[in-house]
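To: structure subgroup
Subject: Chain for Friday's discussion

All,

I'm putting the inputs and outputs inline so they're searchable in the archive.
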Amino acid sequence: MSTKKNDEYIYVVLIKALTGLGGFARKFSPYEYTHIAVACDRTKNDFVTFSRRAHHTPFDAGFMHERTEYYAFGKHKRVKIKVFALPVSPEAKRNIKKYIESIERDEEYVFNLYSMVTMPLLHGFRIYKAHNCMSFTAKILELSGVVNLNKPYYKYNIREMDELLRDFFWKEGYLYKRKESRAYMRRPGLCYNVKKFFELNGKLIYRMIFRKTGETYE
């Protein structure tokens, strides 16, 4: 499909992640895309999602503005992507941007690691103020009003969203690295990663056990 300059669109971007985890997942499935993000403007190098904050810090994770060099790094000069362009109403796009901005301002949001790693068995579950790349993107799809979700948003995996959005396919190809990001490729060391491991797991477990009655998930 083509996109017109004056139309309102959001873009869902599937990424063939070049991380060790992405490669490991592809050993067990022929499906190649293992990460997903949202772009509100196709002219900007800005992909919004939930992910690790640096390549070597898997447990320091949460809301992220990612760039091409976060996907194509080191020896990798390009990364494969698949893009869907969803035409949305001006009101829906405003609501999507407000939702993204509200999460960006809220430091309570964390990465929903447990839902991600158990997705093949439990098919997704919510934790208070926690997202991963799948649940975050599916929530944006719900807010778009363009597609009908036939199950709760947090139960969609990347492949299911790929199929759900097939009528909005825009293009498939490669993003090419513009530069290397030293900040994203930093190596903080074992102690930092151990600290972040316990911090993230502590927050997730606490919220699963002690979530107060009346608190909302979103």
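Points worth raising on Friday:
Residues 190-210 form the longest helix (21 residues).
Residues 109 and 129 are 5 Å apart (CA to CA).

D.
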